[in-house]
Amino acid sequence: MNFKRKAVKTIAAAGLILTMSTGVAFASIGSGTVTADSLRLRSEANTSSSTIVQAPKGSEVTVEEDAGSGWYKVVYGGQTGYMSGEWLTVSLTDGTVIPAAQGTEPEQTRGLITADVLNVRSGPGTTYDKVATLKAGAVVDIVSDPGNGWYQIASGYVSSEYVTLVGADYEGSSSLGASAVALAQSLLGKRYVSGAAGPNSFDCSGFTYYIYKQLGHPIARGSSSQYYNSGYFVSTSAMQPGDLIFFFDRRFDSSGGTLPTTHVGMYAGNGQFIHASTTSYRVQYDSIYGYYAPYIVGAKRIG
């Protein structure tokens, strides 16, 4: 008997309903905990589908259903997608715990450097000798994770605070847009503060300005200045991850209509963008559809 599937179907049949902060109701069969260093939330229940976002180790998700073949449909950070049960421990509402199939084996094996300059040291700590440096946007192979705030790489050790884990097939700095989105994801949850441009708080244009500056592609400061002076225009129907997406809402226009934009964010793919939100006062994901759709005025690509 497939106890796991039977238990899942039984709980799902109970019709337990939860409501997210967005006000959208959905059925839940339990919760899950990520056991990998970083686990991908994918658009479909397979490894060839696109990545929506990556959840770090210890992240909690809401499990909606067993999607079969070792996959679960889950909600993480307001985003719905699929996670592999290989690195997800699932706790059903009846108390049943389904351990991760691969225990704590990490899925991700590479890291994107997010600091301007990151020291590589001979050991896992700042008291060890500096043996090399890495610049923002560099991608390194993670040899091991000692679990003390440092990653071991081929040339030594780097602080995990300035490394965003990415997939083994990540192309790195050859794809500027992908690097920008990976860096943006590492800043999710940071506070919105008017006039701030990082590293711990941002306004909308300060967020995009900081990211591209870190990656060695400085852009203008201010959403309208970025609209006028940075990158080149692309159709909003052909946006790629990393493109800047601009909005104009006259309710927030203090220029009297002389400036083209009132807000800017970064397109992340799959109809989502990341921005320093002026309504929830934090860096977060939102959809380009629904509320934001009528206010889109253009998109630009950097690089």
Describe the structure.
With 303 residues, the protein is mainly beta. The chain folds into three domains: 3-98, SH3 type barrels (Roll); 110-173, SH3 type barrels (Roll), CATH 2.30.30.40; 188-301, Alpha-Beta Complex (endopeptidase fold (from Nostoc punctiforme)). The chain has four helices and 25 strands. The longest helix is centred in the N-terminal third of the chain and has 11 residues, at 3-13. The chain is globular and about 60 Å long. The termini are far apart. Mean pLDDT is 82; it is low at 1-26.
What is the chain-wise order of helices and strands? HEEEEEEEEEEEEEEEEEHEEHHEEEEEE
CATH superfamily of the largest domain: endopeptidase domain like (from Nostoc punctiforme)
- Kindly estimate the percentage of residues that lie in beta strands according to DSSP: 35-45%
Q: What level of helicity do the residues show? A: 10-25%
